[in-house]
Amino acid sequence: MSDSSAAVLADVNEHDVEDQRSTKQALLRGWRCRCPKCGEGKVLHSYLKVNDSCSSCGQDLTHARADDGPAYLTILLVGHVMAPLMHVVYFAWRPEPLVTFTVFSLGCLLSSLYLLPKMKGIVIAYQWARRMHGFGKEA
Fold first, then answer.
1. Contact 64, 133 (CB under 8 A)
2. Which residues, including other chains, have CB under 8 Å from residue 109's CB and lie 6 or more apart?
3. Domain for residue 135, yes or no?
4. Cβ distance 121 to 30 under 8 Å?
5. Predicted TM-score (pTM) of this structure
6. Is residue 134 part of a domain?
C-alpha cells in the first residue's frame, strides 16, 4: 500500500468517526423529549406535535415520521407491566372488583399519558441516530 492511499484511508476513517451518531445518547435525549443532536431544544410542543426545528441548534425535525410506533411501544410497556401486577395484586389481596378496575384503569391511563411523548421522542431520536427518513447528512 502506498503512502498516498494510506493517507486517504486514514482520512476516510477519521471522517467516518466524526459522522457517527451515538444511538444511546440520542435515545436518552429522546426520553427527555430533547433534540437528539444537541440535547437542549425541545422536540415536541402541544404534547405530541413535533417542532419544525430545534430552537437551540437548528436541527431540522420535519423529517420525523413516528406514526404509530410510539403508541405501540407505550401499549407494549404498559401492558407488560400492568398485566403481571394485576395478577399479583388480585391473588395476594383479593380486592373488590370495582377497586381493582378503578385503580388499574387509572394506572393504565396515567402511565400511558406519561410514556407516550417519551416514546415519541425516542422514536424520533432513533430515526435521527440511524439517519432514517431524511435525517442523513446535512448540507
1. yes
2. none
3. no
4. yes
5. 0.84
6. no
Write out pLDDT tens, residues 71-83: 999 999 999 999 9
Number of separate domains in the chain: 1
In angstroms, rounded to a whole number, what is the distance separating the alpha carbons of residues 60 and 106?
37
Relative orientation angle of helices 23-31 and 97-129, to the nearest 10 degrees:
140
**If pLDDT is split at 50, 70 and 90, which confidence band does 136 have?**
confident
Name the 3-class secondary structure at 34: strand
- As a whole number of angstroms, the distance between CA 94 and CA 109 comes to 22
Q: Which residues of 21-47 are buried (b: 16+ CB within 10 A; e: fewer)?
A: eeeeebbbbbeebbbbbebebbbbeee
- Which tens digit of pLDDT belongs to each residue from 107-123? 999 999 999 999 999 99
Q: What are 42's three cell numbers?
A: 425541545
Give the whole-angstrom CA distance, residue 3 versus residue 89. 70
Element (H, E) at 84: helix 69-93
Structural domain that includes position 64: 3-129
